[in-house]
Specification:
Rossmann fold, GMP Synthetase, Chain A, domain 3, 2 domains, 8-stranded mixed beta sheet, 4-stranded antiparallel beta sheet, 11 helices, globular
């Protein structure tokens, strides 16, 4: 199923021509932004110097801090009277990143969400419960308008009140849910406590945080859904930048709307297909807030081949953010790696917290994990056995020694939005 088959299935040659045309238009559009006029001048580059897609490498990067420095409207390329909506980023300290949208931007965004949802077989026959924040966070309204564009019945339940969320799924016959994967696990826990059956559910759309294939299996088993990964950034409209098709082997990024590069995060060097690094994106169809070579901070790679679904080149699932990566005694660790290990151990639950400290000038990582009562007899020797099993599994996967503390079921925090599972206390000891 396609929402916009012409653009979703462009040939490589036609796609390249379209990308270059839209890139040149974007380069003209950003001249309305003081930051880019200065940036281009300092770099000795004019928009007309970009004659091929490879020439984009001549252009400087845009970073999140640049956007913060432009607070509130410094990156708007249209008059404020043309901006019909404003969102801000979440989860940051200090000034947020402000994102503006024209009427056309909102139509484009809804269309991209519609592509994603149609791609996995959703239609006007589905009932869609949107369990994410509807405030300044882009996830709620982004999926809302895309679902309505398709003709789905939309339930804007937002976050919180998990028991009521479950009742709505049952009462309204909900077939599709959208939330963070960590909240979906919490939803499953509460449903089990309520002895509530969620038989109407068929599809789960999960994003806003990295999650592993182990968590996918866990969600599918507990909720009875087919789980799909969604990727987006507020700076690039919001959700809908990339999405899994039914193959669920990488995410389709809409190359007609985004020019994607993978770079070495340390050097900025552009990497080849199949090489993992930081994703850099130039949106090609944004009016209110066009960006040039925006450094997402997200670690992925471009697959070398296309997909049998016909939608072209994919990116690998996001491994994590470059700034979320923990460097412990010289070893790179992502929270998603820890999650993957723990979900493969039935004796422990799916909730964990990571604490990083500096002790005697050495990095130490402690992981709190909830024990699964079904696998614990109450004997201390049993507890020690489970603890040793977790330590060994983490050591084998991470090549790193960790301290593991087993804690009571239900004692660790649950998250309605993005999970915050890492507390890095090393800066407190400097």
């Amino acid at each position: 199923m396609f929402w916009d088959e012409k653009y979703e299935t462009l040939s490589k040659k036609d796609l390249g021509r379209l990308q270059l045309k839209r890139l040149k238009k974007t380069l003209v559009q950003v001249q309305n932004v003081d930051f880019y006029r200065r940036l281009f001048k300092d770099a000795g580059i004019r928009p007309e110097d970009i004659k091929s897609l490879d020439d984009v490498r001549k252009l400087p990067f845009t970073r999140k801090q640049d956007l913060r420095n432009g607070y509130p409207f410094g990156f708007f390329a249209v008059p404020l009277t043309k901006v019909v909506r404003i969102h801000t980023t979440s989860g940051t300290t200090g000034k947020p990143t402000v994102v503006g949208y024209t009427k056309k931007d909102l139509r484009t965004w809804a269309g991209l969400i519609a592509r994603n949802m149609t791609m996995v077989g959703l239609s006007d026959q589905d009932i869609f419960q949107n369990m994410v924040n509807y405030g300044m966070f882009t996830g709620g309204l982004g999926f809302h308008y895309g679902a309505e564009l398709i003709g789905m019945t939309v339930i804007p339940s937002a976050t919180g009140n998990t028991r009521r969320q479950i009742e709505m799924i049952q009462d309204f016959g909900v077939t599709v849910i959208h939330c963070t994967p960590s909240y979906a696990l919490h939803l499953a826990e509460v449903a089990e406590e309520m002895d509530a059956r969620l038989d109407s559910l068929k599809t789960g759309l999960f994003g806003a945080e990295p999650w592993s294939d182990s968590m996918r299996r866990e969600l599918e088993d507990k909720l009875g859904v087919t789980a799909y990964d969604s990727y987006g950034l507020s700076e690039l409209f919001g959700p809908g930048v990339a999405f899994e098709c039914r193959e669920r082997d990488g995410l389709h990024i809409w190359h007609d709307c985004y020019l994607v590069e993978i770079i070495d995060p340390a050097t900025g060097e552009v990497l080849g297909e199949g090489e993992r690094g930081e994703m850099v994106v130039t949106p090609l169809v944004k009016e209110a807030m066009p960006l040039i070579r925006y450094r997402t901070g997200d670690i992925t790679m471009l697959y070398e081949d296309g997909c049998i679904c016909g939608r072209g080149q994919k990116i690998a699932r996001i491994m994590g953010r470059s700034d979320d990566m923990l460097v412990i005694r010289g070893i790179n660790v992502f929270p998603s790696q820890i999650e993957h290990v723990l979900l493969g151990i039935p004796e422990v639950g799916n909730q964990f917290m990571v604490y990083v400290d500096r002790v005697n000038h050495l990095d130490e990582m402690t992981i709190d994990v909830e024990i699964n009562r079904d696998f614990f007899s109450g004997e201390l020797k049993d507890l020690a056995r489970i603890q040793n099993k977790v330590v060994k599994a983490l050591r084998d996967a991470l090549e790193l020694r960790t301290t593991v503390r087993l804690v009571e079921p239900g004692s660790l925090p649950r998250f309605e939005g993005k999970a915050k599972r890492v507390v890095d206390r090393r800066k407190d000891t400097l």
